[in-house]
Amino acid sequence: MRKKIIxxxxxxNKTPTEAVALVNMLKPLVANDEVDxxxxxxxxxxxxxxxxxxxxxxxxxxxxxxxxxxxxYTGEIxxxxxxxxxxxxxxxxxxxxxxxxxxxxxIVNKKVLKAIEHGITPIMCCGESLEQREQGVTMxxxxxxxxxxxxxxxxxxxxxxxxxxxxxxxxxxxKTATTEQAQEVCAEIRKCIAEVYDDATAAAIRIQxxxxxxxxxxxxxxxxxxxxxxxVGGASLKEDFGKIVNYK
Length: 248
Ligand code: PGA
Known about the structure:
With 248 residues, the protein is α/β, with parallel strands linked by helices. The protein is built from 12 helices and 8 strands. It has one domain (62-245): TIM Barrel.
């Protein structure tokens, strides 16, 4: 049985002071050891959020990371900086980073490899645009993103990776993919993993759905055979996140 992983993606929200307040508010609401709970927060919030989350089941994650060890990369954050702060998860290749910051599948792949090298679990994002869905190329596109993102990743390493399927048209729009649409793509991603690696790796890898997940839609989505939790944006900043984590 795969353990569900429910991660909040705070995006560019919450100052360090606000981050501490939010962690303190959500701490009792997300106390559920049956699932892995992760708050992916802005870099400057990592340390205060980590401190506030001490003694709870909340894991603090990052929203991004660079693929070099250190050096002249002004403004970037290194994997060692994250691990030193206690970070165990990092979101890689979110569609907003792809769209606004030019992240390609090749960059995503470099970041995934570097995170794994440092013992940080990548939450590798993929997802099609509305245009691609309407053109009927969703599966081809997702397969390409997943295959390139995992180049050079061994089966053993891939088993520990988290993939977040987030259709771009469902992010922040209030338009959740239907349960069937979400399950269909997550199942296809698992099939793709089985082809690239093997059945055991496909059975182990965790695949999240993301895109306007809320307390109402979470139970059905997370009950699907191939959906192992969610990556939650807007609703992770509210009390709702407690309900999402306790979706059963
Ligand atoms: P949303 O964001 O839940 O606000 O749609 C999800 C995400 O981008 O990870």
